[in-house]
Structures are given as C-alpha cells and as structure tokens.
Write a structure and sequence with these properties.
InterPro entries: FAH, Fumarylacetoacetase-like_C, Fumarylacetoacetase_C_sf. Helix content is about 25%, strand content about 25%. A hairpin with a 5-residue loop joins strand 14 and strand 15. The protein is α+β, with helices and mostly antiparallel strands. It is built from twelve helices and 18 strands. It has two domains: about 300 residues, Alpha-Beta Complex (Fumarylacetoacetate hydrolase, domain 2), CATH 3.90.850; about 70 residues, no CATH class.
Length: about 375
C-alpha cells in the first residue's frame, strides 16, 4: 500500500497508532516530514491521554520522540502481522459510536431496505415508488423543525412513515455503538462482513475524535460497513448488522485541529469512494459533508452530556450520503460486496483509508483488548 498522505497533507498535525514489532506492542505516533515518530511516554501512553489534554495539537507538535521508520515503509506493512511494524486504528480507549440516517439520500435508502425486508430484488420498485412521493422533498428539511413535523404528518397520511424518517427528520438523531473499545481496524487491514449477509456495502464517513468533555479535537475517515439485508429485516438487528469482527475501519490517522485544519474543513469535506473487485468491477462513490442534515456539533451534543458520559472520550462516525444503487450482477438488485474487494475512502486533508473485504470469520480475530493494553504498557514501564 502506498503512503496514505499527500505532500500537502503532511503539513497537518497527525496522531495515530502503530504496532511496533520490536517491542511487541502499540505505540502512539505522529508524522514529521515523511518520518513516523513514536511519541509514546509516561505522560501520554495512549492516544486517549493526548486527546484529554488542553491543547493536543501543540503537545504532538512539541513531543519528543524516536523515528521508527518512513511513512511509506510502515504504510506498506501488512496489518495483523505481529512481526511487522504496521499502522493500527488511530484510537485506543475511546468508545466507537456512529450516527445513522444523517443524509436525506441515504435516509430514503434505509426506508427502502425496511420496506424490502432485506430483499434486494424488491428494492428497485420500492425505490421508484418512494422516490416519486418523497425523494426531493427531504433535502432542505431541518430535522426537528415545524416544517419537518408537517412533512412527518403528511407522510403518515400517505402511508410512507418509517422509523428511519423519524431519526432522519425528527428531533432525535440515531446514535449507536459501532464497535467495542480497541476492536476497530486501521488502514491496510482486512474489513469484515458477517457471513449471513448477501446484500451489503461500504459507508464512507468522516469520524470525529471527541474528548470526555465533548470537545471535538480532530477528524479522520471511517468505513461503517453496512449489512443492508440484516438491518432491513429488522432495525432490532442493528447490532448484528453493524458490530462484527473487523467491521469498523478507522484511519489512517487523526488530523488534529490546528492552524491548518478546523471544524469548518470537516463541514466542507468531500469524500470519494472506490471499490475495485477481483472480478474487474469498479464502483465510484461520493459523499459531501455540506449535504449533511444535522451539523456535526449537534450530533456530538446528542451523544455526550448529562444524559451520557464517556470518561475516555469517543470516536463518532457522522453518517454518509453514499447509498449504492448501481447493479453489479443481477439487474435491479443493486450493489453488494464480493470477497476480495479493495475499498479506498479518501478526502483532501484527511488522507486515504484502504481495506480489503473478507468475511468477519476469516479476518484476524480481535484478541488485544483493554486488559491486554494495560498489561503491555505496564510491562514497558509506561504505567
């Protein structure tokens, strides 16, 4: 895998994690020039500790460290191989949360999944019917507004109301737990599909890094793998559709807010998706943060507050505009993954997140949890 940052992006303040084969454990890193620098210390043995500081970007810029290799060299290493120094997901002790149905177009696709009960063969006819009735009327709706409430009542009258429209235009956002602490995978890793799924797709998203006080510190990219047939059968199967081995990819690194990057850059982010299959199929997709229905700061406020605390902070997927309808094999059945698909999610300023699609049962099992991290850090004299 080629380096995941452009020359322009290298000017940012980057925070991430690398598995060091020589010490047999994870370390906290930044990028300086084209070097990867280990800045792990007793002051900040984890990414979580840096994210809890008053000025994380200033700390990372000044932190003493040791060059452990070039960006190209380490980015090319295979994740999961304990004898190779390789990049990990950039978060550690943070909870991994996700928002759903935050874009009008993807909201309509969730309604279609529900109406089709997870059957892709029924999706196209339902898409045409629902699109004709509500397609364009949702794009400029402010969720929770009086106008949104009037539209809700009109849709109920027409028989089109859905739980997905409730979280899409109602006052409350959908926020769910995407993955367990330390279970997300980084760039270059295999990403997993539950073997029961036959209709699924990638979801290219911006992921925010948020402190325990609710302060947004920076952003990265994510793939919130979606099992359309499983969730379409019942929204109560969301955990089975979303939280499986290797089903959450985050990376390549967190770009911290500094003089070169801010929340406004997140709001303007343009995400590009490329899926290249071993069968020669290529899918291109796009997600523009300018079209999100709820502002990212509002989504953070709905996640953390007096109603819910996160002592170690959290990573928050912001949802996606991307909803693939292009047929891959069977006419009118749209897109679904095939094993071996190479998925690349990129955005100017945030780099590239690259993963290969496998079954969750065939991806490397998650074995390094919070207890293992604590023991590893203690053994290295960092705790």
């Amino acid at each position: 895998m080629a380096s995941f940052l452009t020359e322009t992006e290298l000017a940012g303040t980057w925070l991430g994690r690398v598995w060091r084969s020589d010490i047999g454990g994870p370390c906290v890193v930044t990028v300086r020039g084209t070097d990867v620098v280990d800045i792990t210390s007793k002051t900040a043995p984890t990414v979580r500790d840096i994210c809890e500081m008053e000025n994380p970007s200033a700390y990372v810029q000044r932190a003493e460290g040791r060059v452990i290799g070039s960006l190209d060299e380490i980015a090319a290493a295979k994740p999961g191989a304990s004898d190779q120094t390789h990049f990990l997901s950039p978060c550690d002790l943070q909870a991994v949360k996700a928002c759903g149905v935050t874009f009008a177009k993807s909201m309509v696709e969730r309604v279609i999944e529900e109406r089709a009960a997870g059957d892709p063969a029924l999706a196209q006819s339902i898409r045409e019917k629902i699109g004709a009735a509500i397609g364009g009327s949702l794009e400029n709706i402010n969720p929770g507004s009086d106008e949104a409430e009037r539209l809700k009542q009109a849709l109920i009258k027409e028989g089109f109301w859905s739980q997905y429209l409730e979280v899409g235009i109602g006052p409350d956002a959908e926020v769910f737990s995407k993955a367990q602490v330390l279970s997300s995978v980084g760039t270059g890793a295999d990403i997993g599909l539950h073997p029961i799924s036959n209709w699924n797709n990638p979801e290219p998203e911006v992921v925010l890094a948020v402190s325990s006080t609710g302060r947004i510190l920076g952003a990265t990219l994510g793939n919130d793998v979606n099992l359309r047939d499983v969730e379409g059968r019942s929204a109560l199967l969301l955990s089975k559709a979303k939280d499986n081995n290797a089903s959450a990819a985050i990376g390549p690194m967190i770009r911290l807010f500094d003089e070169t990057f801010s929340m406004d850059d997140v709001r303007k982010a343009e995400l590009t998706l490329n899926v290249t299959g071993e069968d020669g199929f290529v899918l291109e997709g796009h997600s523009s943060m300018s079209e999100i229905s709820r502002d990212p700061e509002n989504l953070v406020k709905q996640t953390i507050g007096a109603h819910h605390q996160y002592p170690d902070g959290f990573m928050l997927y912001l949802g996606t505009l991307f909803a693939p309808t292009e047929d891959r094999d069977v006419p009118s059945e749209g897109f679904t993954h095939k094993l071996g698909d190479k998925v690349t999610i990129s955005a100017p300023g945030l780099g590239k997140l690259q993963n290969t699609v496998r079954l969750s049962t065939e991806c490397a099992p998650w074995t390094f949890g919070a207890s293992h991290l604590m023991r590893n850090l203690a053994k290295r004299g960092l705790l």
